[in-house]
Amino acid sequence: MSAADLESLREQLNRATLELQSLQSEQGVEKISIGNYLLTPLAQLGVKGMFGVPGDYNLGFLDLVEDHPAIEWIGDCNGLNAAYLASILLPQCSYPWNCFSFGVGELSAANGIAGAFSDMVPVLHIVGVPSTTQQRERPHFTTPLATAGSPLSPSDCQLYDQDMSDSGLGAMEAQALTRSFQARPTEEFVLSQIEDRVNAANGDGVVLIDACVIRYDVRAEAMDFLKRTGFPVYAVAMGKTAVDETENRYGGIYVGSITDSVIKINVEKSCLVISLGSLRSDFNSGSFTYGIPTDRHIELHSNHTQIQHAYYPDIGFKHRLPKLTERLSRFHDIGSEIPVEPFKVHLPSDATQEITQRFFWPRLSTFFQPSEGAGFGTSYSFRRQENVTASQS
């Protein structure tokens, strides 16, 4: 193709671009950048903050984040810290997400993203990358970084142009909506089966609340379920703070064989146990020592429901729990009469001036002010958190 032909094509392209801009202006069509195309729906979903580290390939996008009225940029010293903070601060940030730069930044965050994935914490992970031309020439890294993160996520996409941005982001949003909202013919059957099991137990049941109630933002639905059914509620260790522990129907922490004997009997001897958001890790289940027989156990999860030995995929609890509440609210008079010893922290006296473990943990909650919190490491402190009261205030 000659230089004259190329020049002619450029002129035609410029004219077409001007005509398109004129047409858009006449019809009131506003342009939106890819960055804002991503930020707008996230803000509508309730995203409040973004963790991350500035880098060569995300600075332009971060300018949009800093200018956004609803999303706060929370800078971190490295990618690993940002990834862990995003998963730990899930309740404060609604739907947490983070942003890193190509290569070193995204690999630094890999441990945190993998941890969030294994613990079922939803985190949106965004990576700024070089131009497609630079990626083809590979001036930076030769490793397949784009595919390295795929096993750590239930869904991912790579955006190379505007058309892919629309279809790629749309497909991910559609997948999330399908998982969360799609009604299935089996839903009515599952709800009826649960109601039948509660009826067969004469309304004698307890609720066991766990980590995924927090991680999938189901606390409001769970609290409504508890209030309208009247069932006693116990928390698993990682489900602490999912319910207000000052409520008189809250009985304490259940962690398998290492549970307080009174709580252990109340849970394991109940005619029916309804688990909400169970996370059966070794640390969270007393090294897999749950003493709840399967034939007396109903489990509602984010993406499935299990009724005794029957497993129902794609029947999650976010939008089914309110329907179940409507069905089981008729058992309130029975459920509210089931005896439960309200959880209370006993403050033991200590004759010595030393700050002992026995003295310290029951008093820790008295230091907290409303809206303050604490993180417990996976050691002795995690086991002693049962002696720290968590109030929703």
From TrEMBL:
Domain Thiamine pyrophosphate enzyme N-terminal TPP-binding: 34-136
PANTHER family according to UniProt: PYRUVATE DECARBOXYLASE, PYRUVATE DECARBOXYLASE ISOZYME 1-RELATED
Thiamine pyrophosphate enzyme central domain mapped to chain residues: 206-320
Chief location bin: mitochondrion
CC per GO annotation: cytosol; mitochondrion; nucleus
Keyword set includes Lyase: yes
UniProt similarity note: Belongs to the TPP enzyme family.
InterPro entries: DHS-like_NAD/FAD-binding_dom (IPR029035), PDC/IPDC-like (IPR012110), THDP-binding (IPR029061), Thiamin_PyroP_enz_cen_dom (IPR012000), Thiamin_PyroP_enz_TPP-bd_dom (IPR012001)
Name under which the protein is recorded: DHS-like NAD/FAD-binding domain-containing protein
Single Gene Ontology MF annotation: pyruvate decarboxylase activity
Keywords: Decarboxylase, Lyase, Magnesium, Metal-binding, Mitochondrion, Thiamine pyrophosphate
Upper classification of the organism: Eukaryota, Fungi, Dikarya, Basidiomycota, Agaricomycotina
One annotated GO biological process: aromatic amino acid family catabolic process to alcohol via Ehrlich pathway
Record's keyword annotation contains Cell division: no
UniProt cofactor(s): thiamine diphosphate
Subcellular location: Mitochondrion
Provenance organism: Coprinellus micaceus (Glistening ink-cap mushroom)
Signal peptide: none
Pfam families in the record: TPP_enzyme_M (PF00205), TPP_enzyme_N (PF02776)
